[in-house]
Design a protein that fits this description.
Elements (H helix, E strand, L loop, with lengths): L4 H11 L3 E5 L3 H14 L3 E5 L1 H7 L1 H14 L4 E8 L2 H10 L3 E4 L6 H16 L4 E6 L3 E4 L2 E3 L7 H11 L3 E4 L4 E2 L10 H10 L4 E3 L7 H9 L2 E6 L1 H17 L6 H23 L6
Parallel strand pairs: 1-2, 1-11, 2-3, 3-4, 4-5, 5-8, 6-9, 8-10, 10-11
Antiparallel strand pairs: 6-7
Length: 281
Amino acid sequence: MLVSTQFILRNAQEQGYAVPAFNIHNLETLKAVIESAVELRSPVIIAATPGTIKYMGKEYLLHMIEAARKRYDIPISLHLDHHEDISDIKNCIDLGVSSVMIDASHHPFEKNIQIVQEVSVYAKQYGVTVEAELGQLSGIEEDIVVENSIYTDPYQAKEFVERTNIDSLAVAIGTAHGLYKGKPKLDLQRLTNIRKQVDIPLVLHGASGLSDSLVQETIRLGICKVNIATELKIAFGTALRHYLFSHPEENDPRKYFSDAIMAMKRVVADKIKMCKSLNRV
């Protein structure tokens, strides 16, 4: 069943767990995510970046999500991840997308607020969940490169949430997009201080590569949504390459995709267990 991301996150917040948001890229990766969530009875957030939207096409993606809604009985939401183009976000909302992240975090504070306000006002007319980010994660997210992270200021976070009327806030506390080059060091005291100032669900981006215990500590301190992308792509791509290397004569996608789907399903299952969202539906 298709539900709002706000519904999923509020339940997680009230019951002390988090829900993973898995980035998908095509039918096969969508199947891997949803099938694992169904098997573990977990709500799930399907995340689509601008690159995924461009690759799949909005209509194809929406129809695939609609098919999943009809077939499966777990809570599913479709979420636009790291979108910056306001007109494109509005178009997606008009087509039926029920959850968006407007990422204006690279702008100065007041400009960030101005952009997020515009999206929030439009989205609220349709009951659409809005996520925004304050601060910046280092690393690479598709074609966006951030050299140095900017941590979220707890008091700015309070003002930001109050003025934008967003439903969830992505925080920068030391995580990074992509794989970590060294041992990640998260500012958990900063997260605690943000939680004291902000009562909406908090979002952790850049969670690929973090230990389960560290992610679970962030959940205890207020994180309700955990974004997973890089580890999924690695599992899928590695299994696909291994199969094709072992079966150079194979040319049937239904066969060579099967191992990749299973490998990705295992990662999805691990992350659901990490977030403690299994057996919640």
